[in-house]
Amino acid sequence: MKRVIMKRMGLxxxxxxxxLSAFVLSxxxxxxAQRYSSKxxxxxxxxxxxxxxxxxxxxxxKKAKGKAATVEVIVxxxxxxxxxxxxxxxxxxxxxLHYRVDDGPVIATTATKLSFHELxxxxxxxxxxxxxxxxxxxxxxxTLTVTIP
Length: 149
Description:
This protein has 2 domains: 2-46; 50-148, Immunoglobulin-like (Sandwich). 35% of the residues lie in helices and 36% in strands. It contains 3 helices and 8 strands. A hairpin with a 5-residue loop joins strand 7 (122-131) and strand 8. Helix 1 (2-9) packs antiparallel against helix 2. It is elongated, with a radius of gyration of 28 Å. Residues 1-9 and 11-48 have low confidence and may be disordered.
């Protein structure tokens, strides 16, 4: 079709067709880049929300009497891995757990059962969260409450 237009309209048509072709190509490339970026952002959001966890206190009354709490976690949808083994690079489908009692330090581990001892009397909250290899939250988390007499 380009040849027919060029023969009929001469040199001006060649320039116009070339300009239009370049414009269509650039619009197509930009559109592809925007679609790719959108897909990438969607994939990141989806990756950040993979996996699930269910946490529970093991024998809460008995443990509380001994000034302790034991948390047991069931994780689905991801493989628990020590982030140091992969240079703390986030990899889809891999995670570890973050535990925190009250406002204390975060304990990063692959352990699905963890005990806290020498808790002071009163109410304590224990947060358990799935984290990526770079320690950013993946979304799923659960907060448990224990009261030490």
